[in-house]
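Order emerges. As here.
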Amino acid sequence: MVNKPAKKTAAAKKTTKKSDSESHEFQAEVAKLLKMMVHSVYSEREVFLRELISNGADACDKLRYEAIQKPELMGKDSELGIAIAIDKEKKTIAIGDNGIGMNHDELIENLGTIARSGTQAFMEQAAAAKEGGKDAGDVNLIGQFGIGFYAAFMVADLVEVISHKAGEDKCWKWSSNGEGSYTIEEATGDDARTRGTEIYLSLREDAEEFLEESRIEQIVTTYSDHITYPIALDGPEPRQLNAGNAIWSRAKSDITEEQHKEFFGAVSGVYSDPALTLHYKAEGLNEYTVLLYVPSERPYDLFDPERRGKQKLYVRRVYITDEAQLLPSYLRFVRGVIDSEDMPLNISREMLQNNPIVGKIRKAVTGKVLGELKKCATDDSKEGVEKYAKIWESFGPVLKEGLYEDMERRDDLFELARFRTSKNSDGETVSLKSYVEGMKEGQTAIYYVTGESAEKVQQSPQLEGYKARGLDVLLLSDPVDSFWVRTALGFDGKPFKSITQGADDLENIEPEKKDDAAKKDEAGADELSALLVAMKDALGDKVAEVRKSTRLTDSPVCIVAGAEGLDRNLEKILAMQNAGGMSVSAPVLEVNPSNPLIKGLAAQAKKEKADISDAAFLLLDQAFILEGERPADPAAFAKRMSDVLTKAFA
C-alpha cells in the first residue's frame, strides 16, 4: 500500500529548529531555469504533473531493482505506487511515492544542480521558441533535458520535498520558493515519512484549476496511463486513475496512437509522434516483448561522445537498466523497452554485457529494427518517401557509423543509405542502387568526394572534370564518411573511388560536349613539362608531385592525395584528433593545361632564368583555400599577393 501524502500542506511549519536548517544557493544554471519556469512561457503547464509522476515511477523502479539484492529495503510495504492528494482549502496538491527515496546528499545533487549542457541547450531552444512566438510545442523540451522536477515551479510558489531513502535512518526536507536558494533540514514529527518521497506544491493563484479532481484525472489518463504502478487519487473514496499495467504487455489492437505517443514521450523525453513503432513478442528459445520507437526528430543527446543506447531492459516487468546496450551504437536513437522472460531477476548491470541471452536478443532485435527501416525506405508512396527522407536526414550520420563498425550488416545498411550527389545537390538524395543504375558507359567505380561540409564538397574544383563528362559523384560531408569508405569493398560489384586521391580515370570517358578548340589551346607539351619541373623545384617538399590534371576544366590548380595512404579529409580529421601524432602529408598539386594563367606561366617557364616561384606558391595557397584550408604561411601569402598586385598596378 503506497504511503498516502501526510495530512499537512506545503505551508506547514517546520518542526526542527531554525539553526538546524541548511541554506544553499542553486547552481547558476538552475537559478536561470527557475526564473524561466516562474515566469513561464509555456501554455501546457499541466505537464508538471506528468513529470512528477514519472519521477515517482522511476523511484519505484529503482527500489524494485535494489530490493532484488537487498529484500529488506522493501520491508512490509511491498505494494509500490503513487498517490495524489488535493487540499482545496489550503490550495495545495501533494504527490507521493513509496519508492527508493533520497538522502541529504542526493537531494542536493538531484534538486540543486543539473547538467550544464542540458540546461543551456534547453534555455537556448526555449528562448528561440519564445522569439518565434511559439507556445504549445515548447513544453516538449522539459522532459527531454532532464529537468522535469523544475516544472513544478510553473504552478507553485513554494515546493517542499520530504524524502526518506530506503535502508537509512533519517528523513529530510527540501524546500524552495524558486527564487535562487533552497533549504535542507532533517524532517521529524509530522513532517517525517517512512520511505519514499512526497512533493508538496503550494499553488499559485493562476493555477487553481489543478485543485479540481476531474482536471487531475484528465491529466493522469492523458499523460500517465502507461505508468505500470497504480496512481491513486486520495479522498473520501480513493480511486486508481491509470490502467496500471505495462503498455508493452497489451495487445497491439488495445493501444491507441495517442497512448503510443505518450509512452514514447515518457521513454524518450520527446513528446511528438514517433516516426516508426515496432511492437512484437518473440517466442521460442528466448521469450521477450519489444516496444521500440524511431523518433521523428533528433534527441538532444544523439551525438553524445559515449554513444550509449537508451533502450530500457525489464525482466518480467521489473526494471533492470537503460544501459544494457540492447542495440548497437549506430541505432542509439531508437527508444523504448525490451522485457525478457528468461533472464534472472538478480542479474547485475555488469553481467549484462557478456550475457548470452542479451546477445541473442541484441542480434534479433537489431535485425528487426533494420528490417522495419528497410520497409519504410522501400515504400514508394509519397507519404513513405517523405517519412524516410526525414528519418535519414535526422539519423543518417549515425546509421552510417554502422557501415564502418558492423561488417555483418553492411549490405543491409547500404540499402538504407541515401546520398546527396553532384547531380542532386539541391537536397534530394539517391540510394546506391539508383546511383549504380545511372552509371555511364565506361564508368567502373562509384565516385565520391569527402569534405567538412555539404557546401564545401559541392564547390570542390575536382568535380569539374566529372561534371563535364556527366558523371555523378557522391557528396560526403559527415565525419564518419571518411572512415567507412576506406573499409567498404564496394556495392553491387562496383568499388568506391575518391575523386581527390590518386590518378583519375577520366581519359577513358569522353566529355559530353567535345571542345576540340580547347584541346588545341592547351599549353604545349614542352612548355607544360618545363612548368611542372619549375613548380616542383620552387615548392620542394611542400608537395609530393606537380602534374598535369584531367580533373580540371576551369580552375587553374587543385590538390589531391597520393594513390597510397589516406584521403586528405581523413588525414585532417586524424590530425585534429592528433591520432598517434599524425600530420597531414604533402599533397599532389595538379595544374590545368587549358587555363589561361597556367598557359602564361608555362610560356614563362620555358624561358631561361624565368622566376615563377612566387606564382607557384600563390597557386598552391589558392588550392589550399579552395579546399577550405588556410595557406601554410598566411604572412608569406599576403606579401606575395601584394607584390603581384604592385607589379600589375603600380
